[in-house]
Design goal:
Number of domains: 2
Strand content: 15-25%
Radius of gyration: 24 Å
CATH class of the largest domain: Alpha Beta
Protein name: Glycosyl hydrolase family 26-domain-containing protein
Distance between the termini: 61 Å
Number of helices: 12
GO molecular function, one term: carbohydrate binding
Family: Belongs to the glycosyl hydrolase 26 family.
Bound molecules: 2-acetamido-2-deoxy-beta-D-glucopyranose, calcium ion
Pfam families: CBM_35, Glyco_hydro_26
GO biological process, one term: substituted mannan metabolic process
Length: about 475
């Protein structure tokens, strides 16, 4: 276990406000007393648990930086005073010299916010979303998570009120059918005002009804078992029937696809054929296939697979179901084969999907949902209607860091959804942070039914809250103007 230094930074933070002119964190209005606009806290002055102060990498501020994040409980604890309940933007100055990592930010022992630290050679600042400080002393912890990064300091700046959104009025597909248009019109009408409750899988949606008395507004289904490389090994699915069932009771449907690689499945003891959507379970090379083009046998298999999925999407269309369609999810994580070879191949595959489903199959009931945050993975405004992120962090927090990143990515012209979460966000937090996720969708087994992620009390609070729309409250959305 590591060392603990007991210097708290309460005084440090206040003193900084006084010294701040030399650090550039005070804005002086002419003929006025300087207004404190930011509070900076050096990591090396905070309470350290399992971590230590170092000075060997140049470029830090203060008297050093904190290193030694290598165990789950390793952390830095800042004590932060506040005169009022107030929302602040948080930035963390860090160095990612061991590559891309993730840290966790925990405010007042509450929700766990996951923050991505891109790889860097020097100290640099990254936005870590917002924190709602209480009046009095607050604790803000930076906890290991992946570990292996260096932390120099944090800065808290009073958050500006959220600017008005400027959401595109039309879907990207000019031939979008009336069902997709009605869905999009309805989604725009509630954005920023309410959040749609959502659940992965119809059976888990019905489980929520037994737990809370309310049914989710949105149900997501997975086309995984319609992937040809699974069907040929005997899989069957009721995902389409389940989606139609939810549609017929007035609900909204989202569809994702854990696309089992068309070929190249290892099918070993460790990596069975049914894991074939994971990078680790296949040597299918999406970059080589896209580069080889339409005459390549593997490219032909991609088309075969897309056409098989088109059959299912047409069944939804024929039943009058507009679909929030979220293919190639979590690509930037690289754990799925479609993201394994970097952004360019993935974007080409997304373009192929769009062209084949919209251009060739004339599937006009789709609303296109993109699911990565990083700008270099973004396929572009012309083929994306809604931006989304998958966030797995405990504590039922508002996920403001990811929301803000998506606002930037879409220049606030695209609706933004929490397409998969481990923990349903607390509506009071969503409102306080003004994180206007359009929907949240909790993953099924071991998340929705796991008190560490979603306690029965939290689920009840979420599903009974006025800010959260449930199935009974969205009836008639298809004809809403
Ligand atoms: C808190 O209030 C005190 C006393 O009014 C003031 O001196 C100080 O600048 C305030 N601090 C912040 C961070 O607003
Ligand atoms: C198709 O992909 C498989 C699996 O990665 C690979 O073994 C094979 O060489 C590829 N075929 C072509 C024609 O590129
Ligand atoms: Ca420092």
């Amino acid at each position: 276990m590591g060392t603990t230094t007991g210097i708290t930074n309460v005084l440090r933070g206040l003193a900084l406000a006084a010294l701040a002119t030399t650090r550039g964190v005070v804005s002086a209005k002419p003929c006025q007393v300087p207004v404190v606009t930011a509070m900076l806290f050096e990591a090396e002055d905070a309470l350290l648990t399992g971590t230590r102060v170092e000075t060997s990498l140049a470029g830090y501020t203060g008297s050093g930086y904190v290193a030694g994040f290598d165990e789950g409980t390793d952390k830095i604890t800042f004590s932060i005073p506040s005169n009022a309940t107030k929302l602040y933007d948080l930035t963390i100055r860090y160095a990612g010299i061991y590559g891309e990592k993730r840290t966790s930010v925990v405010l007042n022992s509450g929700a766990n916010t996951e923050v991505l630290f891109p790889a860097t050679e020097a100290f640099t600042s990254v936005s870590a979303g917002q924190v709602l400080l209480n009046e009095g002393t607050n604790t803000l912890e930076i906890v290991n998570n992946w570990g292996w990064y260096l932390v120099d300091s944090i800065t808290l700046t009073p958050a500006a009120p959220r600017a008005a959104h400027n959401i595109n009025t039309a879907l990207v597909n000019p031939a979008a059918d009336t069902t997709a248009q009605a869905l999009y019109r309805y989604l725009r009408s509630i954005y920023g005002k309410k959040i749609l409750s959502g659940q992965q899988d119809l059976s888990w949606a019905n489980y929520i009804a037994t737990q809370t008395g309310k049914t989710p507004a949105l149900v997501a289904v997975d086309l995984i078992d319609y992937s040809p490389s699974r069907v040929e090994r005997g899989t069957t699915s009721t995902a389409v029937e389940d989606a139609i069932t939810h549609h017929n009771r007035g609900g909204i449907v989202s569809v994702l696809w854990h696309w089992n690689a068309p070929t190249g499945l290892y099918d070993t003891e460790e990596n069975k054929w049914w894991s074939g959507f994971y990078t680790r379970a296949t040597d299918f090379d999406v970059a080589a296939t896209m580069a080889a083009g339409p005459t390549n046998a593997n490219y032909t298999l991609l088309i075969r697979d897309i056409d098989a999925i088109a059959v299912q999407l047409k069944r939804l269309r024929d039943a009058g179901v507009p679909v929030l369609w979220r293919p190639l999810h979590e690509a930037e994580g690289a754990w799925f084969w479609w993201g394994a070879k970097g952004p360019e191949a993935c974007k080409q595959l997304y373009g192929l999907l769009y062209e084949r489903l919209v251009g060739y199959h004339k599937l006009n009931n789709l609303v296109w949902v993109w699911n990565s945050i990083a700008a270099d993975w973004y396929p572009g405004d012309a083929t994306v209607d809604i931006l989304s992120a998958d966030v797995y962090a405990q504590g039922n927090g508002p996920m403001s860091v990811q929301y803000d990143q998506l606002i930037k990515l879409g220049v606030d012209k695209k609706l933004i959804a929490a397409a998969e979460v481990g923990a349903a966000p607390l509506p009071s937090q969503l409102q306080a942070y003004e994180t206007h996720w359009l929907w949240f969708c909790v993953w099924g087994d071991t998340f929705i039914n796991n008190a560490e992620w979603n306690s029965p009390a939290v689920l009840k609070e979420v599903y009974e809250h006025d800010y959260v729309l449930t199935l009974d409250e969205i009836q008639g959305w298809r004809t809403a103007s």
